DNA sequence: AATACGGGGCC
DNA sequence: GGCCCAGTATT
């Protein structure tokens, strides 16, 4: 697209955004004289990594209500932040969130350049560009999954992802304006989310269809992607050990799957063999009727739940949590499912 | 460049 | 059941 056409594209896109921008809790309205609070932009961008807007909304509100500034968040206890993040997934984000908040609070405020933002934990190329653009008005080149899709269709890029990323970023750079770069980036993302959708692209309603190489030419086939490997199966055993009104919880190691999160005691999740039992207490265990089936990014898990009650014995030390309050224990979804199944199954006895 | 890393909603 | 989502860190 020529420079002249790029200018016309930017105008058409921003005119559309001025009317159709999604109202989101972390946003300021389009064309606003003020830029949004960098803390809110950062927090929303971390939560939005590989996570849909609808899911993020309630978590975002909870976090900003409980920790209104980066300094509040920096002063929070790790376990409180992780528990508040429970259910949102990709828990390394929560651990990096804490580290980043402390780094930023220590230096006083968020840096305003893409290069400095990129140095912070949990902030990669996309997020650095997004914060620089949206919160600091810099003409950074913002490219997320939405914008890759829009570029693929606008320029009919037939090269499959991820090889096409370089070309897509170059095309996005050609289109990035000096004025209102944050609105431009958000407009492209809104376009991708509401018009230039993965399936059922609404080309008739698209403000930039006159610039697009894919309109009327099966836009849904773009971007092309390399096929993914099949998900292997893994198995594991989790243990629901009760004593009186309480159940035993553990904290998982800081690195790896569900790292740092509260959990039920469990075996490692293994492929191609039965898990080796690893009960947290030697007693008589009984299997819950059905296993929990849970799909992770790179494997499918069948988790058998074993239950036992040792109320008659002295209580071993550990992280005992009231069963009645288990939904507030900060369990990731896998173990929340397991807890629900175990508690429900015992109810039926 | 490839892999690990969640979870939910949609078709 | 596969695809997709405001990706990053590690190897």
TrEMBL record:
<keyword id="KW-0378">Hydrolase</keyword>
<feature type="domain" description="HhH-GPD">
    <location>
        <begin position="47"/>
        <end position="194"/>
    </location>
</feature>
<comment type="function">
    <text>Adenine glycosylase active on G-A mispairs. MutY also corrects error-prone DNA synthesis past GO lesions which are due to the oxidatively damaged form of guanine: 7,8-dihydro-8-oxoguanine (8-oxo-dGTP).</text>
</comment>
<dbReference type="InterPro" id="IPR003265">
    <property type="entry name" value="HhH-GPD_domain"/>
</dbReference>
<dbReference type="InterPro" id="IPR029119">
    <property type="entry name" value="MutY_C"/>
</dbReference>
<dbReference type="Pfam" id="PF14815">
    <property type="entry name" value="NUDIX_4"/>
</dbReference>
<protein>
    <recommendedName>
        <fullName>Adenine DNA glycosylase</fullName>
        <ecNumber>3.2.2.31</ecNumber>
    </recommendedName>
</protein>
<dbReference type="Pfam" id="PF00730">
    <property type="entry name" value="HhH-GPD"/>
</dbReference>
<keyword id="KW-0408">Iron</keyword>
<dbReference type="InterPro" id="IPR000445">
    <property type="entry name" value="HhH_motif"/>
</dbReference>
<dbReference type="Pfam" id="PF00633">
    <property type="entry name" value="HHH"/>
</dbReference>
<dbReference type="InterPro" id="IPR004036">
    <property type="entry name" value="Endonuclease-III-like_CS2"/>
</dbReference>
<keyword id="KW-0234">DNA repair</keyword>
<keyword id="KW-0479">Metal-binding</keyword>
<keyword id="KW-0411">Iron-sulfur</keyword>
<dbReference type="InterPro" id="IPR044298">
    <property type="entry name" value="MIG/MutY"/>
</dbReference>
<keyword id="KW-0326">Glycosidase</keyword>
<keyword id="KW-0227">DNA damage</keyword>
